[in-house]
Structure formats: C-alpha cells, structure tokens
Specification:
This protein is an alpha/beta fold. It has a single domain, classed as 3-Layer(aba) Sandwich (Rossmann fold). It is built from seven helices and nine strands. The strands form two sheets. The protein has a five-stranded parallel beta sheet with strand order 2-7-1-8-9, sandwiched between helices. Strands 4-3-6-5 form a four-stranded mixed beta sheet. Strand 5 and strand 6 form a beta hairpin. The longest helix is centred in the last third of the chain and has 21 residues. The relative contact order is 0.22. Bound molecules: guanosine-5'-monophosphate. The site of guanosine-5'-monophosphate (5GP) has 16 residues, from strand 5, strand 6 and helix 4.
C-alpha cells in the first residue's frame, strides 16, 4: 500500500472502493486524486504479469511478477480477486487489503470489470464505481496521448472497451456509473459517492 495524503474528506470506518472502467477512461487520475483528497485512503498494489510501461514503478504501480509466480500465488489463494486482461494476469493481494480494512482504512482498488464482479460477490459492502469515457474518440485520444503502448496493444485495449462497458452494465455489480468528461468534476462526484457510502455503511 502506498500512503495517502491527509486532506479534507473523512470517513468513519474502513471501506473497499472499486474503480473500474475501460483503459483510457481516466481511472488512474481519479484514483491518484482520491489518495490525496480522501482521508485515510490507500492504494492496493496489484500483482501483474504484464511488462512495465512508461511511468511504471516496481512495487508502487504494481508488483511485476512472472507468470509462474503469479500462478503459484493464485494456486495458494493469495488473491482476493484476479483476472486475465489482454493476455496478462492481474490480481489483488488479499492479505494487505483485509488487514487495511480491519485497521479502518479506505482501500482503493483500480481493477477491471471481471475483478469488480468478483469483489461484488465476496464483499457486497464495497463501493463499486465504473468510469465511462464521454465518447469513444476520447478513449483513443487519451490512450494515444499517454504514448505508453505499442500500436497493437493500444488497438486491443480499444477493442476491449465496449465489451467491458457492456459487461459492467449487464453484471449489475456497479451501482455507480460516472462519465469522466471534466476530470475535476468526476473526482468530486466520486468523492461524494464514497462519502455517502461511508456515512451509511
Ligand atoms: P493496465 O495494464 O492498464 O495497468 O491495467 C489493465 C487493466 O487491468 C485495467 O482495467 C486495470 O484496472 C486492471 N487491473 C489492474 N490491476 C488489477 C487487479 O489486481 N485485478 C483486476 N481484476 N484488474 C486489474
């Protein structure tokens, strides 16, 4: 877990917050803002088999592991949830999350829709928010703008987006859908959802 800032908004007790959405929808920017603006908020560092890309920091963005290690950990049931996304494995290490919630922290999971569905089943009290792009052009523009993927990977991520959105809608596992048009507005919206959920948990 990386630590959060100490500003503003406060919650009474531990909470699991799931932020999902297609690649390029702006999840990471939203999560980064939550870490500094929601009191006691912490990031869950996932494990993944995907290669590092520009801006990634080992142990902060992810634990970058081999497929062998990932599958061994999965076999030992060390992940709270896990999924395969465009040929790579991703998983949320269970222990740090369970411990942090017991300590009353707000844990932010930025995970895909398959993971969100698993969390909804296991931890229905979690807050699950799906971030939508204002339109598909904006997804492409954001992915191209971050310039961190090869063209073929970018194309696969874009091709995956419609399916992810449909899966999120069909699953009924996301009580909240927010359209990320203006980032600052979206952050406020997400914060108020978390506060509302925290207050009545
Ligand atoms: P990226 O490769 O862009 O970092 O992540 C690809 C997708 O995997 C994103 O939708 C991201 O939210 C998701 N993801 C990241 N970590 C996890 C995880 O631990 N579990 C699941 N299910 N998805 C994850």
């Amino acid at each position: 877990m990386s630590s959060s800032g100490s500003r503003a908004t406060s919650l009474q007790k531990g909470k699991l917050v799931v932020i999902s959405g297609p690649s390029g929808a702006g999840k990471t920017s939203i999560c980064n803002a939550l870490l500094t603006q929601v009191e006691n908020a912490y990031w869950s560092v996932s494990a993944t088999t995907r290669p590092l890309r520009r801006g990634d920091v080992e142990g902060e963005s992810y634990q970058f592991v081999s497929q062998e290690e990932f599958l061994a950990r999965k076999g030992r049931d060390e992940f709270l949830e896990s999924a395969e996304y465009i040929g790579h494995h991703y998983g949320t290490p269970r222990e740090p999350v369970v411990q942090a919630i017991a300590e009353g922290k707000v844990i932010i999971l930025e995970i895909d829709v398959q993971g969100g569905i698993q969390i909804a089943a296991k931890m229905p009290e979690s807050v699950r928010i799906f971030v939508l792009p204002p339109n598909s052009d904006s997804l492409r523009a954001r992915l191209e703008g971050r310039n961190s993927e090869a063209d073929d990977v970018l194309a696969k991520r874009l091709a995956n987006a419609d399916g992810e959105i449909a899966a999120a809608r069909d699953s009924d596992c996301y009580p909240y859908f927010v359209v990320n048009d203006i980032l600052e507005d979206t952050i406020e919206q997400v914060k108020s959802i978390i506060l509302k959920e925290g207050a009545c948990a």
